[in-house]
Design goal:
The protein is 0% helix and 51% strand. The chain is mainly beta.
């Protein structure tokens, strides 16, 4: 249900090293193909979701005050 005919989705939960959910994390998803970026903020449960994503390779950046910024490259979205 997270996909439509020509798009995909990416969802996840941000946790700290102890496994506790981290709210208010800025999650930035950037297309490696077009360099277009989308931003979401985690909820109180640490969850985020991007929908209607064109297939391709993306880079995801997680940033929150008091935490080290983390980048994850090579995230592939398929239909």
């Amino acid at each position: 249900m997270a996909q439509s005919a020509g798009t995909g989705a990416l969802a996840g939960t941000v946790t700290d090293p102890s496994g506790a959910a981290v709210p208010n994390v800025t999650v930035t998803l950037t297309s490696a193909d077009t360099n277009q970026a989308r931003t979401a903020t985690t909820g109180s449960d640490g969850a985020y979701k991007f929908t209607l994503l064109p297939p391709g390779t993306y880079r995801v950046r997680f940033a929150a005050p008091g935490f080290k910024t983390s980048d994850v490259g090579g995230v592939v979205i398929n239909v």
